[in-house]
Design a protein that fits this description.
By secondary structure, this protein is mainly alpha-helical. Helix 9 runs antiparallel to helix 10, helix 9 crosses helix 11 and helix 10 crosses helix 11. Helix content is 79%, strand content 0%. It has 13 helices and no strands.
Length: 254
């Protein structure tokens, strides 16, 4: 890996770390950066997942006081998230490269739309807080399982998807939903990254360069959140996601 590529990935990691700290949506910046560094799409996705995975764990630990108690239901959700993340990662690695390339523009577009409509989804989540009854664990687990398989397969927008699913399955205060979302996203991320590492799907020089940048960016984001309006960051991410959708649609579809 040359110096120019290292600096590109470091800068993308810094930007991703800042974006995650302020608004979320780092994958819309970091995954295209891995592709721009010349990695095959599947390897780029796996390496990106490893590089940004600490963010979920840090978020979960930051609000651990609102994590739910280890009830049977919560434990079952953790198991579902872990298995779902592993299944999604396995599906990714089993797919031929050309079959993963085809949906890449659509996946980026889908994640960008989720990110763009996140405030509306979160507003709907708040409206669900007063729901009277919980769905059955089986029905809840089915929706959660599909979300977590997607998270292990690609991951962009997983936080928004989990928030929406949990608002239905776990009507509660929004902070508790966010805490549970962070816990489950951590399980998905750890399971997927473990599969990627064990299967040798991670390019470590590129991953470590981005990981270093993400750590720097996350730390810097803690300061910038005090002065930089989150809506500006959100607009930047949405524009970048839309641009990347067009670029990769032109590359892989036309």
């Amino acid at each position: 890996m040359d110096t120019e590529t290292s600096l590109l990935l470091l800068a993308a990691g810094v930007a991703g770390g800042i974006i995650n700290a302020l608004a979320g949506g780092a994958t819309l910046i970091t995954f295209p950066a891995m592709l721009a560094a010349g990695l095959p799409a599947v390897i780029a996705n796996a390496s990106n997942a490893v590089a940004i995975s600490p963010g979920h764990l840090i978020a979960a630990l930051a609000d651990r006081g609102k994590l739910p108690p280890p009830t049977r239901r919560t434990i079952s959700f953790v198991v579902i998230a872990t298995v779902g993340g592993a299944v999604g990662a396995g599906v990714l690695l089993l797919l031929p490269e050309r079959l993963f390339l085809l949906p890449v523009p659509a996946l980026i577009a889908f994640a960008t739309m989720l990110f763009g409509f996140a405030p509306q989804i979160q507003g709907w989540t708040v409206g669900r807080e007063k729901a009277a009854a919980l769905p059955s664990t089986g029905a809840s687990g089915a929706g959660l399982g599909l979300a977590c398989i997607y998270g292990g397969f690609f991951g962009a927008g997983l936080g928004v998807i989990l928030t929406a699913v949990l608002s239905i399955t776990e009507p509660n205060d929004i902070r508790a939903i966010k805490a549970l979302k962070n816990l489950l996203a951590t399980c998905v991320s750890l399971a997927a990254t473990l599969i990627f590492i064990l299967q040798g799907a991670v390019r470590w020089p590129e991953t470590l360069a981005m990981l270093l940048g993400a750590m720097i960016g996350g730390y810097a984001g803690g300061f910038l959140i005090r002065i930089l309006p989150a809506h500006i960051v959100r607009q930047f991410v949405i524009v970048a996601g839309a641009l990347m959708t067009v670029v990769y649609a032109a590359r892989y579809w036309f």
